[in-house]
RNA sequence: GGGCGGCUAGCUCAGCUGGUUAGAGCGUUGCAUUCACAUUGCAAAGGUCAUUGGUUCGAGUCCAAUGCCGCCCACCA
């Protein structure tokens, strides 16, 4: 039937078209015609399985689908592999909030039960996320969908862990970590947020010295007093010298330590250290092999060393301690306006309490070096380019990565811990029953991996490293497209782990999009109540309008203010496409595809101009400038094809038979080719119209049509 | 303390390796309408391209400095 409904209704066609594609099988590269040889692969950033799609996902899916559809039309064997991320800590936090609402707590549950519940929660979300991904029109290969907790993925993650361990790049270390007292887990340095705040700075009398501190409640165990070796004010005190002095809870013996980490211009140039609860102090203590003592427990309460204050929360204890110090005449003065930076948990905002804990660390410098090398040699192209500098800067200053988390929702760390010497022994087969160092008894490690440790291996793991056919065919991949926000969390780590395990860069291009903000340019958040659900927009304006609206003028790397008017404008465009196509279809009913026609000079030029236009768009697509390409197509279709070409040919359609045929040919030619170049951006409407067009050598779907030459 | 962006029409933003009267969408104003489309057409108004200096025959585009705005990184108690 060469007819389109009088009015365009996105809802009526969208589900139908998606089903048509799924049925065609062409999402799966193996089912593409044989001529599609050269692989083009994008591994989709695995979606967090803890909620539903947000506007950012809408952008990810749109941009990646544009690349995939374009390359498929250019004859590439395209694979777009979808995935789901268990998103360890993120998901557990979401689930814990739910538990809280129900008046339950993870700390009173059996770990196994909690794990089961979160797994069920995740599986419910999985279905939801898949349906939503389809609504965006994503042409990904569902037959290859992976989940970060799939058995084969865990196997790969374990073998990487073992390899790192054997190479001496994983160690279990008693080191200071970022501890969230609310979530009862350690975090990596990327998972804390610096917060500026103004507190009181207390100057305390410590024997002959005056020391400054913002945290008097940590000072009970302080028995080292540190100063710069070049500080002339304290030249009479010698390194290692012992001093008897009266402190909060009685007499202590302090030892003088000289260390260059001290800033002579801060306060009095002298400080005491609390190695258990401060990273700088920890380093000083390590350098001089000093004792370290825990003052605050993991729940944030003072330990018996605090004497009468034991058991108190630090917030409660602080004023009382200050009171006592004052009573003892040890409080010199208080600076009320002391502005400093504190670390907070990126999820709950709780103050991070540094703690010393045995954790699994990955030595990063040896992993970073090959990555730095590859990036410097431009083996990986960053879009936009300035991310190259950003990545290099981070990699060059990288510190060891704490990959253990004290949560149940994740991949268990396959290891045994020695009860007597505390050694950690990697034990993937779960066979080791005694410590290889001291022969002590061992217990199973209960920590899980940082979720980024598994997602950092995603490109090769999801493709079935090391021996699958897919891995051999599709790896390394061509493009990694994700949010610029997670360049360190994810992209850099994928580069490092990819190079380390597979010996290859995991992707040739990194395309980083910016944040999607609300219409006013503010970050979307549930608490602000300004979250835009992409599916509301596709519902209201159609998926195609949403998609092209998301990309036009949206430069990679910069944030996008998602204004509804923007999407509405493209709904009008979809309507324009529909009506122009309807007009052409109405006028070609008597046209036989393949008929010979004679074009006049003007028509020949029109065709030639169009070809030039296509070439330019092609160039833009090849250089990842979708934001310009989309606008160009839009402009051509509306203001050249509709406003000029159709108008010019209207009279000829009612001219001589010869003239009519020529115009029919021309209009059909440009319309069908325009639909092809529009297809990556607006796949649903273009497919629907394509299905109605009278063409010679028509393909089963527009999706596998050749890009116009 | 380091680093990275941005500053172009009322609003949101394009403008690649420097080259004729600086662009788009939305908005605004006027006119048109039984023609595929009012989810339309035609036309118009609107910009000292943050500032200053430099390179150049020529700069929104390159260089330097300055000023705002935003972001990231960093162990100053």
Descriptive notes:
The longest helix is centred in the last third of the chain and has 28 residues, at 626-653. The protein has 709 residues and is α/β, with parallel strands linked by helices. The chain is elongated. Strands 7-6-15-17 form a 4-stranded antiparallel sheet. The chain folds into 4 domains: 32-169 and 363-412 and 450-513, Rossmann fold; 186-353, Valyl/Leucyl/Isoleucyl-tRNA synthetase, editing domain (Isoleucyl-tRNA Synthetase, domain 2, Alpha-Beta Complex); 414-446; 541-704, Isoleucyl-tRNA Synthetase, Domain 1 (Orthogonal Bundle), CATH 1.10.730. The protein binds one RNA strand of 77 nucleotides through strand 9, strand 13, helix 6, helix 9 and strand 26.
Distance between the termini: 28 Å
- Tell me the name of the CATH class of the largest domain: Alpha Beta
Low-confidence stretches: none
CATH fold-type name of the largest domain: Rossmann fold
CATH architecture of the largest domain: 3-Layer(aba) Sandwich
The count of β-strands is: 26
CATH homologous superfamily descriptor of the largest domain: HUPs
In spatial order, strands of the major sheet run: 7-6-15-17
Helix fraction? 40-55%
Tell the overall outline.
elongated
Supply the number of helical segments: 20
Quick recap of the structure?
The chain is an alpha/beta fold and 709 residues long.
SSE blueprint:
Elements: H1 10-24, E1 39-43, E2 47-48, H2 55-73, E3 77-81, E4 83-85, H3 88-101, H4 111-135, E5 146-147, H5 151-166, E6 170-180, E7 185-187, E8 192-206, E9 209-213, E10 224-227, E11 242-247, E12 250-258, E13 270-272, H6 279-288, H7 314-327, E14 331-345, E15 353-362, H8 365-376, E16 381-383, H9 387-396, E17 401-402, E18 404-405, E19 415-418, E20 424-426, E21 442-444, E22 448-449, H10 451-455, H11 458-462, H12 469-474, E23 477-483, H13 487-502, E24 507-513, E25 516-517, H14 534-541, H15 543-551, E26 560-561, H16 564-587, H17 601-622, H18 626-653, H19 657-678, H20 683-692
Helix pairs in contact: 1-20, 2-15, 8-9, 8-13, 14-15, 15-16, 16-18, 16-19, 16-20, 17-18, 17-19, 18-19, 19-20
The structure holds one RNA strand of 77 nucleotides.
